[in-house]
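Input:
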Amino acid sequence: MIQATELTKRYGTRLAVDHADFTVAPGKVTGFLGPNGAGKSTTMRMILGLDRPTSGSVTINGVPYHRLAAPLREVGALLDAKAVHGGRSAYNHLLVLAKANGLPRSRVDAVIDLVGLHSVAGKRSGGFSLGMGQRLGIAAALLGDPGIVMFDEPVNGLDPEGILWIRNLMKALAAEGRTVFVSSHLMSEMALTADHLVVIGLGKILADEPMAEFIAKNSVSYVRVRSPQPAELAPKLALRGWRVERQADESLHVYDTQPAQIGDVAGAEGLWLHELTLVQSSLEEAFMRLTAGSVEYHAGQSDDQSPPDGFTAAGWGTPQESQAPQVEERIQ
Amino acid sequence: MTATTTRSFHMDAPIRRITFREALDSEFAKIRSVRSTYWTLLICVVLSVGISLLIAAVTSANWDTLSATNRATVDMSSVVAGVYFGVLVMGVLGVLVVSTEYGTGMMRTSLTAFPRRSMLFLAKAAVLTFAVLATGIIIAFASYGVASPFYTKHGVDLSLSHGANVRALLAVPVYLALVALMGLALGFLLRHTAAAISTLVGLFFVVPIITNFLPGTLGKDINKIVPSNAGSAMMVTHAATPGSTPTLSPLGGFVALLIWTAVLIVPAFWLFRHRDA
Amino acid sequence: MAARDSVLTPTAPQGAGTGHAHFGRLLLAEWTKIRSVRSTYWSLIALVIAFLFFSWLFPYLTVVNWKQASPTQQANLYLDPIGSITGSGLFIGQLAVAVLGVMVTASEYSTGMIRSTLLASPHRVRMLAAKSIVFTLLILVIGEVIAFVGFFIGRQTFKSLVTVNLNSANVREVFGVGLYLAMLGLFALVVGALLRHVAGAITGIVALLLVISNLIQLIPGRIGKYLYTYEPTNAGFVITAKRLPDNFLISSWQGYGVFALWTAVLWALAAYLLVRRDA
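Output:
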């Protein structure tokens, strides 16, 4: 378990991590999300004792990192796959780490086989492709069979087979009761892998909750209704107090209700239905909405803070989370 | 790599607290597993011994043209004269052992595997010292082997039954090791290969140029204690000749060099412990 | 296709320029690279400060110690006052230039920047030429400026002992400082391109300048004289000297020519390897 309490890091005048409180619990995959420059890497470095917090603390199983008996046996981290000496072979790189924690050579062979680097173990790591380097980093993280695994962008450079493999690996590790902490930008992957989310923006923790709850809180879902009689159906639904929006293609978007209830109304009024679909936000949409105000580094086209398509009519929707108003404040 | 579920790879052994022993093992594995270590040590040996041989041959060939004073200055330090070159190479080795870790980002990886920074620093220093001492002994005795015949045939006393001669020979690995440690300290302080090497070069080759010309007794004293002169003093066996530049005694040279090394290593150690990785 | 702005059109791409325009842009690129890196400033500051400082210090110490100086030392001064002014500054300045020259090429490999560079300028030899021209000119200009400024500083310091005036005979000694530094810089740049390894190249050049060029003097006989004369840095250095060293076999301009020839041959080798080797 990783526990951060009021964790803060200041670089000169810049507050990179701002009194972060969160817990990463065992038995599930926790996704660590945030825009670029939000403080993800800084936080991870503080967890591993690489950077000293300005104030606050972060502990691994109750102890600060440097007091762990054998760090690699308890935490395995992949922060930067390129952080290897290019002149050293993959095998020797892992051997150096193994020896630092008193791990036997058999562990090196085991993780090399696990990640599939057996054929290139003796080659210098400087010549590795991106994917191979990534696999070496994963091997190093798993070397000590740790109870906590931390990955920063693990799928970077992996081919589709590799992406599937790492996804299953992370889920299997979590199922074994380990703590899995993954930072990624790949929303589609995160949506498939993570059970719990910690979201950071401009140094502050914006969310620390299960995935389903996060999506529900930060998105607006609606029911898409297609009917040959939209003009008659819409007012009947509105009468029930539900917000109804008529779309250009004659479909209706109905908010604040379930498909079953709409079906009941249509049936009671004797109106035909051709489609009744519950449309839920993706993780990506939920994430963009929550963090839109705290993106520090914008790409050129999206200078305006307007939310993505699909929400223009509804504006910002009805955020229920108290943190959301803080996000609004930060919109320049 | 299969896409099926992972094989079981659990470790059953109990967790044992990491100690200095593990840091030593790891650092030793590190230095042994890169080519630059071998290249550097080999170049150092070849050039130190080769230059000692060259100087011996030339001095011997020109023996008749040397004045009596000059002949009196030929001693064990002449036999190992190539070390003045070897010093630069060993200093660079010390720098590289640290600066390449910073340059590649490997230092962060090392610190996650072994976060106890004092021990990591000491382990690096210990492994480097061992490697340089061992190579230095080879250089000293190889130089003795190839170069001393050129001198002994002119009657220079280089016999190893004299304590002073043995001391001068053993001073070679010590000098090299201390300079390597200075390089290591510069690597930790500056965390940048070119800057550290430049500083080393400046300290060893540029500073003496200035101090050589400083006026007065204060100037002469300062000139005596600069690292290169202090180190050279360790290998001298002849008595001071009139008119020559004053130097420290061999023991004085050793102490001065120790102080220089400490002056660099102490802040390097402190900074390594306290700075962000 | 409709004339609609694509996502990529904020700046419409220019057509590929003519040969001249292209090389001009290469020069600009290399100049931007060189002046946007901290190590450039550190090295140049070290060069300027060290050179000017020693142009003052050495004459000053000579004046202060004049009474203790031996007759030989005093004679040396009168014989070659400019050498006394520029000698020590040059000794140190050449190290700064050599380190910078090596880094200009070798650090592109250590940082991986070489790949961006070669993507932008696939004509590798032209890129090397642009880099060489920009760097050599930079060192030449700075070298000449500090040579003359240093000369006047030293001249001023020596006033009480000896008056030093520039005339057609000795202006070469001052002018030669910039020439030597520029060629040395280019030589170091080439060594960096050949070895592609910062620490190795710096060590090699420092060893060449400080150790090997001196130890070569010990090699006896005719062979020793040839080796001493035709060693690149020794050959080039004489352009800054009034008198040729004892074992030197050719004139000072010939010596500089030898240095230039060494550099040209190594440059050609570097260019060839740059094209042949993988980045």
